Each structure stands twice: as structure tokens, then as C-alpha cells.
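Hi support team,

I submitted a single chain yesterday and got back a structure, but I'm not sure I'm reading the C-alpha cell output correctly. Could someone confirm the output below corresponds to the sequence I sent? I've pasted both exactly as they appear in my results page.

Thanks,
R.
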Amino acid sequence: MKKVSKHIVNYAVWIDHKKAIIVSRDKKGVATSETLNSAIESHERFKGETSNKSRTFDTTLDIGKKMQNRENDQMHHFCKEILTHIPASAAFVLITGPSEAKYELHKAFSKKKVLSHIRVEMKTTAKLTADALGLLLKERTTK
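Hi R., thanks for writing in. Yes, this is the structure output for that exact sequence:
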């Protein structure tokens, strides 16, 4: 027999590469929010920089590939950190945001077996505040 939780909580996550806002709404409609900042480093450009390659002896190394791999790894760790804030007792998660980061978070949800029973929806939005995200979550869960 499947164990049913009495404390059903719905979540909304607004994510981009710099931060994530997590809003939870319990069965009574009380919303709480939390903000997480990412550690993803952006690429710095230097005055006089003309190429993204460096020359070592007789070979050239493409620094762009190395930097892209580092950014992907940092995004993966940021998504894992977000998933630690969403319990297995959640019933619904709405992922929003303007960038590709929401797809990475959705991929992380599908890989985590403990969270596989949760219904996950995605929506592209511009920048939202925690209050606006809470209203969007209320609108999506009352349908």
C-alpha cells in the first residue's frame, strides 16, 4: 500500500544562471520563499583579447571548451543544490525562468528517482519576484 502524505506542498522555482527563487505553498495556502545564489562564474573579457585559444609549444588549446565544461559542471551542482530544498513529499513543481537553466533543472528532476513521482511543469517567464511566483503557483494549482 502506498503511503500518502497529509502535508501536501506545491513548489515553484524561478531559475536563471545567477540565482533561484523557491516558493512553497502548503495545503492551507501559506506561501514561503527562499533565494539561492549560484556560484556560476561568467567569462571575463580582457582588453586586447582577440582569441579564445592559447598557444602552448606547437599546439593550440581551445579555452572555450574548457570554460564551457566548467560552466556546465557548475550549473549541474547548482541544480543539485536546488533539489535538496524540495522534499519527496511535494506534489507539484512549477519551473519558470527566462534562460536554458530551467531545462537543466528539469533534467535533474528526471534523473533523481526519489523525486520521480512529482508532477513537473515548465513555463517561460521574465524576471519574477517571490510574491509574483507565489501567485503564479496558486493559479497553476487551483486549475
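A quick pointer for reading it: Residues 63-83 form the longest helix (21 residues). Let us know if anything else looks off.

Best,
Support desk
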